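Q: Here's a chain of 219 amino acids. Please give me its 3D structure as tokens.
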Amino acid sequence: MGLGHLMHHNSNPGTRGLTIDHGGTYDVFGAVFFGGRRDHVYRRLAELSGARPGDRVLDIGCGTGYLTRRLAAVVDSGMVVGIDPSAAGIDRARRITEEPNCTYSTGVAESLPAEDDSFDVVANCLMLHHLPEDLRPTALAEMRRVLRPGGRLLIGEFRPPANPVGRHIVGALTGPSMEHNPIHLLAPMVRDAGFEQVDSGDLRPWIRYVTAVAPGARG
């Protein structure tokens, strides 16, 4: 049984998705898995989100707040709210976060604890593959619901190696949801959810990102 199998399970009855409760272990695993590029990749994701000073940002599946804190640096006087189904992950995020413009709470992607049109940016990284495939459109519909007109969406997902041997190693370490992650469906799924200006690209070593805009004009 790989490390990913030990960390990924379902501890929140409010979702059929997987949760990660061993936040400290996951942080160490992430640092190793990204080969020293984790901070660079996440700072670049924060830039790609389109967040700007004063924005209100939602980070879905925030875990221990790694992306949340990098978004907080971008929005400056704004606010970033991180949500995650794991109470243990949220507790760790609160303990290690020093940025005053970050708040955290438990919540699930398919039923976001937020009002309509309440965020300028919605972001998530390495979250969607934790959801069963039939729930992913529901989660995207929720992301669009809470975004203001013209608000921006950022999704970062795991890009499996093209090499079959590499994919097998990933599967042994993390489980089948990452080994067979259907990243080719990301951009079409975002378009189907009603988003516009959909764009995508890769960040070494493991991330495929998709950016998009909610219909309407952003102020």
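Q: Can you summarize the key feature?
A: The two ends are 50 Å apart (CA to CA).
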